[in-house]
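User: Structure tokens for both sequences below?

Assistant:
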Amino acid sequence: MRFFYALTILSLFVSLQARENPFKPVIDNTVLPIASNQVKKAPPFKSVKVSLPNDARVLTSIAVYYQSIDGSIKKRVVPVDRSIDWHKPLLISQTPLRESPAAAKKAKAAKKPQHKETPAKREKAEKTYRPLPFLQLKVGKKSVRIVTKDKKIRSFHLSRPFKVAVDFRRKAGFLTKHIPLSGAPFKSIDIGNHNGYYRVVVTLDAPYRYKIIQEKDGYTLALP
């Protein structure tokens, strides 16, 4: 019996010695805080340097934790599998790297002065579609203008894929219209006929915050 107790104490001592600090709680890095559904306001990200320990030799992957549009915390892992020099820190940046003096001079010479966008310039940059006699669509980089005299009944969005639907009051008969779009973030527009109203559905390439703004000639789906 004494031998059993001695063996138990020895095993416990070896187990404690295997950890650098046996009284430090074990933290599971895969466990994230529960989503608060409150989108955190933060200043724009520029860059950050990450110094690696001196035993680092191969960068296997990079894990990024980010707050989603619904306020939840998510994780994205990017595989790398490349050898590294631990003396040099990793630089994570969302801004372009500094150009050489010659390239910067060339870019400055080719750069044209920027002018404030006017309604006329915005309309010129938009692509116009006329799927129905009473409906016109003008698609820009971050907006879809729905030109119509019909009254908006409601608007809502769907997920997977992300779609914004706007209903307008009108008794009309027509077949469903489908307009494919080539440029991001808008993928396509569908117009469907229903009993007493019709629906304009804009499909996007990802979830976005958006606004439905009433204009003189209709409504605008605007992205930030």
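Moving on to the next sequence.
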Amino acid sequence: MAQTLNRTAEAPRHVALIADGNRRWAKGHHVPVVEGFREGARRVHDALAWCDELGAEIVTIFLLSERNLQRPSDELLPLLDVIRELVVSLQENSDWNTRAIGEIDTLPTELANVLIPASGPLPGEARKVVNLAIAYNGHKEIIRAVGNALRESSNPTYSAAEIGAEEVSRHLSSTEAPPPDLIIRTSGERRLSGFLLWQASDTHLHFRETLWPDFQRSDLLAAFAEYQSQNRTLGL
């Protein structure tokens, strides 16, 4: 049955996507793994257009975990090339403000040099922001935020026990963005895999069997419609 949105209901402002299933797509289509990554990169452009059409202003996409850097070099290096090409394409051919979050300093120089200019703060008037999570580690993001909050304090006796949620949130790598309203994971897996662990405490989670390269507007519509159907009291 076709999904429709309730135009009078609130749409998710910040949508996060765990773009999973590229390797399985390649295997199912009997093509090299890198072709699955390339098809997945093309789907990023489509997903951003659909999010824009449906009213989302911020999109965060999990492209590569820090753990993925342990993959064999014959698979990893082509994947990093695809990611670099995607970032350049978004920077040059998209009206979305592109940001990079993750352990950028662990990446090869050629890719890091593309990402570093996108890892700083956004202009205050920026709209339509896409955060690309590359070499991302949610545990490290939280640890770094706590450390930065400690260093920011002028009180030498300040302790971690005195750091509240607001202080930690201000030091996260996605600090300019509100927490995601909706996280969508493709490929049938039902876990966050370390993605936005701090930010996702009240986020609606939606899991699709669709592999990321096969992701369609109808998949996004289904996730948005489910989000709108929930009674989000946040425990109140």
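User: Anything stand out in the second?

Assistant: The longest helix spans residues 33-54.
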